[in-house]
Amino acid sequence: QLNQGMGIGTTLTCGLFRKGHLHLGHVGDSRCFRLRGGQLTLLTEDDSVENQLRRLRDTQRAARLSREQRNALTQCIG
User: Fold this and answer.
1) Are 28 and 77 in contact (CB under 8 A)?
2) pLDDT at 1 over 50
3) What is the pLDDT of residue 4?
4) Which residues are within 8 A (CB) of 11 and not within 5 positions of it... i.e. 6 or more apart?
5) d(Cα 51, Cα 45) in Å, to the nearest integer?
6) Which residues contact 29 (CB under 8 A, 6 or more apart)?
């Protein structure tokens, strides 16, 4: 569901290294990257209206969004 106009929320990206593995927790648009061999790789995807519409393949609706609507968060920490 696209919850717009709900106010301000906090985003979070955190990681835990355990037994040689990285476990990520991610909500919002705080991004996590991996640096390996001089190359940065994005490990998370922003929880935004635009990205949600892309996942749903609703390109017509995404094209009609204003800049503010595109960047609105769909998930955040209250």
Assistant:
1) yes
2) no
3) 54
4) 27, 28, 29, 30, 47, 73, 76, 77
5) 8
6) 11, 46, 47, 48, 71, 73
Q: How many residues does the chain have?
A: 78
Q: Is residue 55 within 8 Å of 26, Cβ to Cβ?
A: no
CA angle centred on 46, ends 32 and 68, rounded to 5°: 135
Per-residue pLDDT tens for 6-57? 567 788 999 999 999 989 998 988 889 999 999 999 999 888 888 888 888 8
CA triple 56-60-62, angle to 5 deg = 65
